[in-house]
């Protein structure tokens, strides 16, 4: 009698089938959570909240950099910002007028840090140069 004959002749009991089903369920759950990437509802909510916060910070930082590029003092601010340490850069950005976004009271820490990183990574040639004041060589005369 070969293995295939023994396999075909095997008749499991209800108890054996129950244990096999329970073991399969446990193995599926263990493998799903450890190797399959499954998470609980609470973890999924936390991950979604973190992703939303990160995307908001990234958007705010992008707006901040665009505002920075448009100010007349961009080159001077860039020089000052690149000479600071990262925690000082964040504070500088949080206080800057170009970091203000309509409808937002203040730029968050993550957004300010990301904005500072993005500004420091800019090529200085991309920054606007201040408009030179028109010099009037004629002396002022009093209007009578």
Please, could you describe this protein's structure?
The protein is mainly α and 144 residues long. It folds into two domains: 3-34; 50-126, no CATH class. Helix content is 62%, strand content 0%. It is built from six helices and no strands. Helix 3 (41-70) packs across helix 6 and helix 5 (86-95) packs across helix 6. The radius of gyration is 32 Å and the shape is rod-shaped. The chain starts with a helix and ends in a 24-residue tail after the last helix. The mean pLDDT is 86.
Quick tags:
single chain, 144 residues, mainly alpha, 2 domains, 6 helices, rod-shaped, membrane, transmembrane
Task: Give a concise summary.
The protein is mainly α.
